[in-house]
Design a protein that fits this description.
single chain, 3 helices, five-stranded mixed sheet, alpha+beta, 101 residues
């Protein structure tokens, strides 16, 4: 299973996290497939940055975000875009079924 989760970086008492796509069997700071952005809990001006196109692409492929990753994606608006895209796909499927009958 593929997950979207945080990968801890930084020094002691100065955490810095990357938002990454990783195989769920990997270690917390193990090898990752792709980096989607970062989360810096110490920096007040720019606490997180996410590449929304990459994140939505992985969510569409079935990647499951952890709770913390989901909160970050929600704050940046990625989850809202993802839900709208899924809803649009459902509507399109219903229209295609109706046209086929």
């Amino acid at each position: 299973m593929v997950k979207i989760r945080l990968n801890r970086m930084g020094r002691r008492h100065q955490p810095f996290y990357r938002l990454v796509v990783v195989d769920s069997r990997e270690k917390r700071s193990g090898q990752y497939i792709q980096s989607l952005g970062f989360y810096d809990p110490i920096n007040d001006k720019l606490p997180f940055k996410v590449d929304s196109e990459k994140a939505i692409e992985w969510l569409m492929k079935g990647a499951q975000p952890t709770d913390t990753a989901r909160n970050i994606l929600s704050r940046t608006g990625v989850m809202k875009k993802f839900d709208e895209m899924k809803h649009a796909q459902k509507v399109a499927r219903k229209e295609n079924k109706g046209a086929a009958n």
